[in-house]
Design brief:
Two copies of one chain form a homodimer. With about 210 residues, the first copy, chain A, is mainly alpha-helical. The first copy, chain A, folds into two domains: about 45 residues, Homeodomain-like (Arc Repressor Mutant, subunit A), CATH 1.10.10; about 120 residues. Chain A is about 60% helix and about 0% strand. In chain A, helix 6 crosses helix 7. The first copy, chain A, is globular. The interface between A and B is large, with 37 and 36 residues. The first copy, chain A, binds a DNA duplex (30 and 30 nucleotides) through helix 1 and helix 3.
DNA sequence: TTCTTGAATCGACAAATGTCTATTACTAAT
DNA sequence: ATTAGTAATAGACATTTGTCGATTCAAGAA
């Protein structure tokens, strides 16, 4: 048992094997998810979360520095799970970009739609890094001599995709997520794949959001 | 005196004329700015801010729902001020994009460099909308038939620019801001101006970050 | 000037936060 | 089975938070 409980303050280590730690964190995330269906995030206290999780309040602080860190962790875990379920292949880069965009749209629509809060959250901090990592992976496989630093492209594209998806989500009378994903692809793809070949995968109709 | 004090909860109305309100808000922002040079944001209490501003703590809550809202407001005000000082002309669109990118880089470097905090903040929520508004203005002047919704392009580009600038700022051994701004321009410009004419303004050397 | 409106102050309050120090319970290895 | 290490619990603590009602003060209009 040589586990540091909080190796990086505020960013709980996921590489733990101790079942007690996994269990506590899972229960805390689940409880927050449950409570978010009933109340606004701001109206939920750490005590409530701990109670719902049948854990002591001090245990909460053993894992997360505050409420926001838990929300962050929960969001990241859920998003990771969603994109893992739909295994995204990088055989077709444009298709991968569209699939990722769709994933972000779907995630926003499905999880933050509960009572309609957490739109103003620092979701940015949890789902953007995941998207960024996927782009980085994709660009590495692509293996073309990059115009600029690959990591910068990945970051930029990730923020662009998230910003666009977020805007779509906050819109009333949303267009279908698939359509939005296609639009995002056409707008963002030149960032990732130079400004050379776009419109290769058959979406020639002008996408108007 | 018919001023609603908080027309939108959490987003203090800027259209007030009452000198008392302006004065209080200015003093609170100034105090937060001062305190941020000494301590981390998390370690500053509302009481401290109010004391420094020689205002009652209750007065604080009359204007902002919490600390974060004040930080948000302060950030937005400062960034607005910075980009107003360097009047950005939209005669040359690519130049404008580069100038905006430079503005974001400079802002991050100059204001969040104090003791090095507020990097993890929801700055996103205050400076991205400003950038977005500038892009929207520029695209309106440009007046070309857009491939997609102009507002979406503005949002996407704003997030892309901010994300890239933020990454640059968090990097150790930063390249000069001007160089970064040029890189951001080449990466983001196809988002705004279709993927047709880039490299028109003489930056033909390959920018490597 | 006088009067009205509402911003700012003051004191007080319950609730929540974040941090301790034991103490207990359970995991993993010997 | 015993043991060492650490997660979880329990209770307590000083602070901070957000809100309230009552009061004072000042800006703008008559």
């Amino acid at each position: 048992m040589a586990q540091l409980l909080q190796p990086e303050k505020g960013t709980p280590e996921t590489g733990t094997t101790d079942p007690r730690i996994l269990r506590s964190r899972r229960m805390l995330m689940d409880s927050l998810g449950r409570l978010l269906k009933k109340k606004e995030f701001e109206d939920i206290s750490v005590q409530e979360i701990a109670d719902d999780a049948t854990l002591n309040r001090a245990t909460f602080y053993l894992h997360y520095p505050d409420k926001n860190a838990l929300l962050q962790a929960m969001t990241e875990a859920r998003f990771r799970d969603l994109i893992k379920r739909r295994a995204i292949t990088f055989t077709d880069c444009h298709g991968a970009l569209r699939a990722i965009a769709l994933g972000v749209c779907d995630y926003l629509a499905e999880t933050t739609g509960c009572p309609s809060q957490l739109a103003r959250m620092s979701l940015e901090g949890s789902i953007i890094p995941v998207v960024e990592g996927m782009f980085k992976e994709g660009l590495a496989l692509h293996g073309t001599a990059p115009r600029v630093d690959t990591a910068l492209l990945a970051t930029t594209a990730a923020w662009a995709v998230f910003g666009a998806a977020r805007r779509w989500f906050q819109t009333t009378n949303r267009v279908p997520a698939e359509e939005m994903a296609a639009t995002i692809e056409t707008v963002v793809s030149p960032v990732l794949f130079g400004a050379s070949q776009q419109l290769e995968s058959g979406n020639t109709e002008a996408p108007l959001v």
